[in-house]
Design goal:
Blueprint (H helix, E strand, L loop, with lengths): L4 H9 L3 H15 L7 H4 L2 E3 L10 H9 L9 H14 L7 E4 L1 H13 L5 E6 L4 H8 L3 E6 L8 H7 L4 E7 L11 H10 L5 E5 L25 E6 L12 E4 L2 H8 L9 H12 L1 H24 L11 E5 L4 H10 L2 E3 L9 E5 L3 H12 L11
Parallel strand pairs: 1-10, 3-4, 3-5, 5-6, 6-7
Antiparallel strand pairs: 2-8, 7-8, 9-11
Helix pairs in contact: 4-11, 5-11, 6-7
The protein binds pyridoxal-5'-phosphate.
Pyridoxal-5'-phosphate binds next to α6.
Length: 381
């Protein structure tokens, strides 16, 4: 069984897709009419990939159903049209936008455009792992700097490592897996102090779940006048389209054309060009998803507090908390209870990451939590 997207990538790498194809086409066929959430295929409650437990919106689902007829065509014009639409929404020019097969593809393009032998990536630890994976594939060294005790990026620590060979820095804000924020003003100062040849990715995958405040402001909504900044976003989270694979970058035209050289030809599928545009139009649904997430997150904290457990303050659609017990054993306990939670996040070896699910899914989570065979008093901090 594949329990994570990392495992899925590994499986693809091992060339095992042929054997999976039969199983997946059966799964897909059973869903054609129902669009049931995928957790029901194997009985697992999926609290492991920070997806939108409710999405996509009914209007977007309807569009997905009706757009299958165009699947025989390469969606070249539709892609251009979507790119212009995304540029418009982000108050950018089309030359400043690059589409990817998920923002994961954008991260791969950035790694191959800006890294390579003798070049160095600096990132936080823990953070979202895709860029590290691609940096190493490109032959780069990766420097990982542990988050501060407040779970912000240790920007002074990262700056201390930045030198002539540092061509890329990755900042995930809000950060995955900790759901924590790094203050906007600190990031601005940090970028200003980096070597002139260092590019910076700001990964805003969880942007919609973070309240705009003095601490957080998107680098798309409030751009810096700095050609080295690349902001990434995804349709996999608030828009509920993880399965259709669409992400994008906003950056200077020069940076976009450098990254574009590493894009897969025709990387955007026909269905998502329609679905993404509908998702952007469906502003009420987006607001509703954000509100539901706020409620679900609050309920998670209420449940945690009721058990004298204090998770890390969350600005995303997932929560991380310390169990004071080896994370792999806790993860295995949940798996035995048919609940998938996030994988281990070293160096936070006793923390677990839980993606927020619907109310029933979260009741299952807390039932399994209450059945953990470890002394609960050691989990109270
Ligand atoms: C911080 C972050 N960035 C990027 C991604 C990749 O998302 P996708 O490739 O589905 O757009 C994820 C997925 O979980 C993520 O957590």
């Amino acid at each position: 069984m594949i329990t994570s997207r990392r495992g899925f990538l590994r499986l693809l790498g091992a060339g095992s897709t042929a054997g999976m194809a039969g199983h997946w086409s059966m799964v897909a066929a059973s869903r054609v009419t129902a669009f049931e959430p995928s957790r029901q295929d194997d009985g697992f409650v999926r609290l492991n990939s920070n997806e939108n437990a409710y999405g996509p919106s009914p209007r977007v689902k309807e569009l997905i159903r009706s757009s299958g007829g165009s699947a025989n065509r390469y969606p070249l014009r539709e892609c251009r049209w979507l790119l212009e639409r995304i540029a418009g929404v982000n108050h950018a020019n089309p030359e400043q936008v690059l589409l990817g097969c998920g923002s994961t593809e954008i991260l791969r393009m950035a790694a191959f455009a800006f890294l390579g032998g003798g070049k160095q990536l600096i990132q936080a630890s823990p953070t979202f792992e895709a860029i590290e994976h691609y940096a190493r594939s490109a032959g780069s060294e990766v420097i990982s700097v542990r988050l501060t005790p407040a779970f912000a990026h240790d920007l002074d620590g990262m700056l201390a490592h930045a030198g002539a060979s540092t061509t890329l820095v990755y900042i995930c804000n809000p950060n995955n897996p900790t759901a924590s924020l790094t203050p906007r003003k600190d990031i601005e100062r940090f970028i200003g102090n980096l070597p002139a040849s260092t590019f910076v990715i700001i990964d805003e995958a969880y942007h919609h779940y973070a309240n705009q405040s003095g601490t957080y402001a998107s680098f798309i909504d409030r751009p810096l006048d700095d050609e080295r900044v690349i902001v990434t976003r995804t349709f996999s989270k608030v828009y509920g389209l993880a399965g259709l694979r669409l992400g994008y970058a906003v950056a200077s035209p020069k940076v976009i054309s450098q990254m574009q050289k590493f894009a897969t030809e025709a990387n955007i599928n026909a269905i998502v060009t329609q679905a993404a545009a509908a998702a952007l139009d469906d502003v009420d649904a987006t607001d509703d998803f954000i509100q539901r997430n706020t409620n679900d997150r609050q309920e998670f904290f209420n449940q945690a507090m009721g058990r004298a457990v204090k998770p890390i303050d969350s600005h995303a659609n997932f929560v991380m908390m310390n169990t004071f017990h080896p994370a792999e054993e806790v993860i295995e306990h949940f798996r035995k209870n048919n609940i998938l939670i996030g994988h281990r996040s070293p160096p936070l070896d006793t923390h677990i990451r839980i993606s927020l699910g619907g109310p029933e899914e979260m009741r299952s989570f807390w039932r399994a939590w209450d059945a953990l065979p470890y002394p609960k008093h050691s989990m109270q901090h």
